[in-house]
Batch of 2 targets.
Target 1
Amino acid sequence: MPAITHKGSHQSQKVINALILLNCDEGEFNDLRPRGEEVANILRISMRKIDRVKKRFVEEGLDAALGRKPSPRNYERMADGEVEAHLVALSCGEPPEGFARWSLRLLADRAMELEYVDSISYETVRRVLKKRNQTVAEAWLGNSS
């Protein structure tokens, strides 16, 4: 663990977790043995974080305690290629009457009206169009690498 805390390039949470474990070590080589509150104040973290790291170390081992837990969230993509194509086509067309241009919310509402999707957020529409704009820009400017 000293290799993690003293040299190299590591994720900040990994370094903090290593420092927590080093400071909480009750072995013969740790002369200082600071209390949990002192470690929390020095590292500017909560006692709860210290408790979680120590618990993960005991239950799952060193690698699990140093790394991050994988996120349990797993989302389905709302916009597949077909929906993306419809959104791009909509955005290139004429906006509804009374509007000068398409807004993200108008595009999301229109995609649901036309039953391209059951539900879609304007944020998903933004991501689809942003991805398209980046692709178009690369085609115009060429690949920078």
Note: The mean pLDDT is 81.
Target 2
Amino acid sequence: MSFSTTCRQVAAVVLVATLANSAAYAMDRIRVAAQITGTLDWELEVMRAHELDRKANLDIETTELASTEAGQIALRGSSVDLIVSDWLWVSRERTLGDDLVFYPYSSTLGAVMVPASSPIKNVAGLKGRKLGVAGGPLDKSWLLLQAFARQSSLDLKKQSDIVYGAPPLLAEKALQGETDATLTFWNFCARLEGKGMRRAIDMADVMRHLGASGPVALVGYVFYGAWAERNRGILDRFFSATDQAKKILADSPDEWQRLVPRIGVSDSAELDVYRRRYVEGIPRRSVEDEAPDAKALYRILADVGGRDLVGSARELAPGTFYMAGSRE
């Protein structure tokens, strides 16, 4: 092989490498915080596996965090561009002068879980019962359940035996029969359903009884409005890619089998419940339809939770919902 031929081959390799690096650098970066055990982490994995990020010309830099609070700190500290949180927090921060906005991510909610043979079938059945509540006294589902119970002249805090605790601990107590009913997050509901327990009171039904016209996403993507204005194209492509990932998860049982190590389920029945509940929570309404329901529910939450929950703001802060690129 001649010297000139070798030089041409080396030049070709360098050119290909240079073009590849240029293409990589040309991709638009978005920094996302995802909880290690959360559904956004699953979706990001699907996006990577199906190269939805590359097709959208996005370099998604993921920071895995242990809690929602850690994500909020990361967003405030400008170490990430986008997190998943709730509109209550966004509204409170806007009231304090911040520029955060909210875009619906999931309407999947928890429920009051009971043993299959339990006589509890509705909120009236909780009177005098031992009720485990995940998330603490200011948990949104707990506040909404109290508001719903008041419609039946039932004060759950006074007329039931309330036990607060971490979701994993309460799930174990429920399976061991130490509580009569357990209000917990959707993923722990799925685990309990997979082990034979049933939903006595679905929080989606509670919200409808409280005036919501359809499914309401309490959790959503949260980011700064000014950042969104500067990066609207990036954000729209990111939302499009995550919607495609959601569709893959909705349509492909095989995809869930691949995600089993991330989800941490123990059997196929449990995995099937996870899939069904996840799919039920995929937002299908426009932001314009969701926002009025959120405003109505905010007033109820503010009434029950008081200043400890919402501060001095009795109404959802104007501009809380990000409207650009709304779902059709």
Note: The two ends are 62 Å apart (CA to CA).
